[in-house]
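Deliverable D4.2, example record:
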Amino acid sequence: MTAELRGTTWDHPRGYAPLDTLARLDARSGPRGPYPYEAVRRPLRWERRPVEDFESRPLATLTADYDVLVVDHVGLGTAVADGCLLPMDELFAESDLAAWRDGTVGASYDSYVVDGRAWALPVDVTAQVAAARRDLASALPGTWAEVRELARSLPVALCLGGPHAFLTFCALCVAQGAEPFRYEGAVVPPDAGEAALDTMAELVARCDSEVWRRGPAGLLEALAAGDGPAYCPLVHGYVTYAGDLRYADAPAWEPGGRPGSVLGGAGLAVSRPRAAEPAVRDAIRDHLRRLCSPAVQRDLYPAAGGQPAARSTWTDAEASALSGGFYRATLATVEAAWMRPATAGYVPFQDAASRLLRDGAADRVPPRRLLHDLDTLYRSWRCP
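Output generated by the structure prediction step:
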């Protein structure tokens, strides 16, 4: 193999462990490739960046240095406007893309589509789900009324670090049937927004701020430690912690209703400037095809601690058993999760909205006033 490619992913075992495992297999196996996985023309060396960088950094600042990027779908609108990515239809046949779309969980493939073209391939998927310590023997709440009731007797935490304050708000609104950004001049209708903020305020008041200010991995670690919160109703699921925690579908607003949740995950995007040379483009294609292949998604990804996007893994009884029931316990939520817009400029709005809601929770700002401030921020983004 010749000169190596460079890739970047986020700094958590779920994000880097499967990629590093495959890179090590390549290094040991030589030109025939790491049986039973396909051979590639060039090695791919992965570098890590903080999760905050993964969630918010513009991709155009990375594409000069990396061939392959593990990305959050919400940054794609800005990246497409910047012209820094290569669309997947310039690498793969339509039949390949259709097969990947049909084989992935929920809306994970569609989340990487901007202006009718896919700009990344889903390799990892998650959504906000419920998580609890395994010593919590009672049935987990199925509705938000039950969550509020549980919080009166057990330590219940919310996940509001980084962008997740706004995502929690969105999930609560989705559970009420009010998907964000469908309303003139407002994120959601006033009744749904105020009900969501009232629920968040009640739970935040009962939770240590050091806990609710964490991101998903940090909050799940606090749950797994066993001496802090016992339950979180909404946190992006990480199979990494399934040995210590019990997962379940996100709560609905009414019994039997839709679980309110926001889709997450990660896709493989390609730098347009780095893929200009045909030989490099061919080598990149090798890696993307292999990483999205059934063998890697079904076998290597779960075994190495990853969280694949392939639906076949999420429905597989053996994979679910090996993950402590994680996949089957949360599949319905992932399938129903709301997809955020990949609109140019969305990420700065999401970050600002989360800061607003987090500060409002800390300062106990009344829900009506906080919702007014959120809608004002929204209008300044949509109508600058």
